[in-house]
Amino acid sequence: MIQVALPKGRLGEKAYETLAAAGYECPSILEKNRKLTFENQEKGVRYFWVKPSDVSIYVERGAADVGIAGKDILLEYRPDVYELLDLKMGKCRMCVAGPEDFYDDPNKTLRVATKFPHIAGEYYESRSRDIDIIKLNGSIELAPILGLSDVIVDIVETGKTLAENHLAPLETIVDISARFICNKVSYKFKYQEILAMRDALAKNL
Amino acid sequence: MLEEQLNQLYEGYGYRKFRMSKFEDYDLYAQNKDFLKKGHIITFTDVDGSLKALKPDITLSIIKNNNGDSEKVYYNENVYREMGGTFQEILQVGVESVGQIDSYAEAEVIALAAKSLKILSEDYVLDLSDVSFIRCLLGGMHLSQKDQEQALSLIAQKNAPGIQDLADRGILTTQDAQAIQELMGIYAPLKEGIAQAGALARDNRSWEILRQLSVTASMLEAFGLNGRIRLDFSLVNSMDYYNGVIFQGFLPNIPFPALSGGRYDNLPQKMGKQVGAIGFALYMGRLEQYFRQERSYDADVLLTYGPDADLAKLAAFAEALRAKGYTVRCQRESGQPCPARCRCKFRYHDGAVPEEVSL
Question: A193 CB near a chain B CB, below 8 Å?
Answer without folding.
Answer: no
